[in-house]
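Record type: ASSEMBLY
Status: queued
Input:
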Amino acid sequence: MQNEEKQDTCAMCGKTINEQKKQILVEKIDDANYIFDSEDCALIFKRFRSLYGNNFSV
Amino acid sequence: MAKCIAFHSYKGGTGKTTLACNFAASLVKKGYRVFLLDLDVSAPSIQAYFEKTPKRWVNDFLINEADVEALATDMTDIITEHEKQDGPASENKKGKLWVGFCNPKKEEIYKIEGGKEEISKMQLLRKFILLREQLISEYSVDYIIIDTSPGIRYWSINALAVADILFLTLKMGDLDIDGTKKMADDIYGSLTKFGAKSYLILNRVAGFCVPHTMTNPTSGNNARVVIEQEDESDVSSRISKTVGMDVISAIPCYCDIQFSRKEFLTVLKYPDHPFADQIMRLSEQIQVKV
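Status: finished
Output:
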């Protein structure tokens, strides 16, 4: 899930970030930018990527 | 800050569910707000410890057929009833226990195993992430305790990925130890690399109920042989070195619990039992570890 496609949704939980008025977290993972609505989501996403490999996306 | 703890194992039958249920009850006794979540989706068994039929199941939430309030079954009374019998609670804080039960019906298991085409595994995963978030934000839980399926399965991986602390339970057989080591090497590194802490719980360690001597069947009834037993700390050290993970607790085998026909919460029913002591100590240790 690249940020060009879905800039306004969290790459892990899928929630729309703008509506929640939360601070957006942008993380560069394997040369691609991913956006998250919380540090928890970013951490969980990284664990899944580490477990399932680069093809993991929600 | 809420902590999520998953009980996992390589094989089934390691006592994972017994440990998870008793551990959750021990935290409530200490005054914490706890949500116990059954995620052993293919063989749910937490219901046996609480004898309760919920309004809705975890399965219903995951497939968008129930909200979190409907699946959260308040089981605090079971704790307070026992505490009344045992005298006043020692803690000032009043603990809470909610349980999310998993549906054992085969058609419901099939739905959340990704068998129903209209609900993809990724949609189910997102609902699971949302469930964790809602338990923290709406129930202000201190702990989420997850009972997972054994081995490397879709829902056990999901449970492990959202957990802050991973308890990997095992028995003392070589098959279990070798499998646990393989699984720890395969997946636990990916989780600890990103902040999770993992510990081994050795369960049913020989030494409490096995006599030191027994009849040698090859030499007649009067001959006796010595059963080789390791000291508890030696066992912990050996397994820790083999698997490459710290042992947080080594729990002896207690036949009265293991072979009981009916499941029960030892920390509530028999608070002076040595197993209950072990669980209470584990819950104290975890305060230090987190």
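Annotation: Chain A has two helices and two strands.
Annotation: The radius of gyration of chain A is 10 Å.
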